[in-house]
TrEMBL record:
Keywords: Cytoplasm, Endoplasmic reticulum, Golgi apparatus, Lipid transport, Membrane, Nucleus, Transport. This is Ceramide-binding protein SVF1. Its main location: cytoplasm. Ceramide-binding protein that may transfer ceramides from the endoplasmic reticulum membrane to the cis-Golgi network membrane, and is thereby required for the biosynthesis of complex sphingolipids. It is found in: Cytoplasm; Endoplasmic reticulum membrane; Golgi apparatus, cis-Golgi network membrane; Nucleus. It is a peripheral membrane protein. One of its GO terms (biological process) is response to oxidative stress. Residues 215-378 form the Svf1-like C-terminal domain. InterPro entries: AttH-like_dom_sf, Ceramide-binding_SVF1, Svf1-like_C, Svf1-like_N.
Length: 378
C-alpha cells in the first residue's frame, strides 16, 4: 500500500509548472492545410494506451417524441497500474423537476475485438458494423435500464484538421499528452431503453462522439463547452476546451455544420461566449444562464459561412458533481489535486432556439433542439 500511495502521488502531482502556450500544439495549426478529415474506421479504433488516458464513446439521442438521452462507455487507464471501464445511461427529465434517471455501472471482463473497433463486457456489446457507419449498443448491465439502440450515419463524420488531435509538451516531436475528438454529428437512431417503470422509444436523431484524453484530464483542460444542435435540415456541433494556465489558458475549439449526406463546414474558427452567468450556490462556479455559439469559416465548396445559436438556457437539466459519480479509484486520485472541483452543467431549453446561418450571402434560420454542457474543472 505504501508503494501504491507513493506511486499515485507521483502520478497525480499538483499543479503543473507554467510551460506557456507554446507547449500545446493545437489542432488549429493543422487546419491551415487540412480543414477537416472525414472519419473512417481507423479513426474509430480504440487506442487503449498503456499510459494515463481516458477514452469515451458517447451517444446523444434527441428522440422524435422529445426525450433526451445519452449512453456512454468510459475506458480509463491510470499510468498502466489500473484499468477501468464504466457504462453510463442518462435519461433527462425535461419537466424541470430534476427527476433524471441516471445509471452508472462498472464493467467486468471488458475487451475489444481484434480490430479494436468494437467493445464488449459482461452483459454489454457495442458493435461497429462492417461498413463502419453504424453502431449497435445492447446492454443488460443494469436491469433498471435495458438498452437496445442502433446509431446510423446520415451525414459523414469528421475530425478537425488532419487527425483531430492537439498535442501537449515542450518538444513537439515528443509530446507527453494529447486531446482528440471525432464526430458523427447527424445520425438516425432506432431502438429503446427499458426502465422498471417505462420503456422509452428513442427513434429520432443522434450524435456520436469518440474522445481521447491522452493525459491527466485536469492537466489538459480547466473548462469545457459543448453544444449539440439539431434542426430538420442541419446539425451543428461544437466542442471547446480551455487549458489550465500551465498551457497558457489556451482555447481549442472544434466544430462543424452538416446536413444529410454532406459536411457543410468543419474547422477550428469557432467561439463560445457566456453572455450571462450566476454564481451557483452548490458548486461556487459561475454557471451560464445565456450562451452564444458562433461558427465561422468556408464551406466545402468555398463559400463564406457564419452560423449562430444564441439565447437563454432556461432551467438546467442537471448539475453533476463529477467527484460523486466517478469510480472510487479515480476519485481518490483526482480528489487529491488541489483546486480540482469538476462540475458539469447540462441544458436543453424548452423555449426553442434557432440556428441562424449565412452561406455565401444567403440567410437560413431554423428552430432546433439543443443539448449543451458547460464544465468547470479547476
Amino acid at each position: 500500500m505504501n508503494w501504491l500511495k507513493s506511486t499515485l502521488s507521483a502520478v497525480v502531482g499538483t499543479e503543473e509548472p507554467i510551460y506557456g502556450p507554446e507547449a500545446i500544439q493545437s489542432v488549429t495549426k493543422q487546419t491551415e492545410t487540412t480543414p477537416f478529415t472525414e472519419v473512417d474506421k481507423d479513426i474509430l479504433r480504440w487506442r487503449a494506451h498503456s499510459y494515463t488516458n481516458v477514452e469515451t464513446q458517447t451517444f446523444y439521442i434527441m428522440a422524435d417524441n422529445g426525450t433526451v438521452v445519452f449512453v456512454q462507455v468510459i475506458y480509463s487507464n491510470i499510468v498502466g497500474i489500473h484499468t477501468t471501464a464504466q457504462f453510463n445511461v442518462k435519461i433527462f427529465d425535461l419537466s424541470g423537476k430534476g427527476d433524471n434517471k441516471w445509471y452508472s455501472d462498472p464493467l467486468s471482463n471488458f475487451m475489444f475485438d481484434e480490430h479494436m473497433l468494437s467493445f464488449g463486457a459482461d452483459n454489454l456489446s457495442l458493435t461497429l458494423n462492417e461498413e463502419g457507419n453504424s453502431y449497435t449498443i445492447k446492454s443488460t448491465v443494469n436491469d433498471g435500464s435495458i438498452v437496445d439502440l442502433k446509431f446510423s450515419q446520415t451525414a459523414p463524420g469528421f475530425v478537425v484538421g488532419k487527425d483531430g488531435t492537439s498535442y501537449f509538451g515542450t518538444d513537439p516531436k515528443n509530446p507527453w499528452g494529447s486531446m482528440r475528438h471525432a464526430f458523427w454529428p447527424r445520425c438516425s437512431v432506432e431502438g429503446n431503453i427499458a426502465t422498471k417503470d417505462k420503456t422509452y422509444d428513442l427513434a429520432g436523431r443522434g450524435v456520436f462522439i469518440m474522445a481521447l484524453q491522452g493525459m491527466k484530464p485536469h492537466h489538459a483542460a480547466a473548462r469545457w463547452n459543448f453544444i449539440n444542435f439539431q434542426t430538420p435540415t442541419y446539425s451543428a456541433i461544437m466542442m471547446e476546451y480551455t487549458t489550465p494556465p500551465s498551457y497558457g489558458s489556451t482555447k481549442v475549439n472544434v466544430g462543424g455544420i452538416v446536413k444529410d449526406g454532406e459536411v457543410v463546414y468543419a474547422g477550428a474558427t469557432n467561439s463560445v461566449e457566456h453572455l450571462e452567468t450566476a454564481q451557483d450556490e452548490g458548486s461556487d462556479w459561475p454557471a451560464p444562464k445565456s450562451i452564444k455559439w458562433d461558427w465561422t469559416g468556408q464551406t466545402t465548396d468555398g463559400k463564406e459561412l457564419t452560423a449562430e445559436v444564441s439565447g437563454a438556457l432556461g432551467p438546467r437539466l442537471d448539475r453533476i458533481d463529477v467527484m460523486a459519480e466517478v469510480p472510487g479509484f479515480i476519485k481518490s486520485i483526482a480528489g487529491s489535486v488541489a483546486g480540482t472541483r469538476p462540475y458539469i452543467f447540462q441544458y436543453s431549453p424548452q423555449d426553442k432556439l434557432s440556428l441562424k446561418l449565412n452561406i455565401g450571402g444567403e440567410d437560413v434560420t431554423e428552430e432546433g433542439t439543443m443539448f449543451s454542457e458547460s464544465t468547470f474543472i479547476s
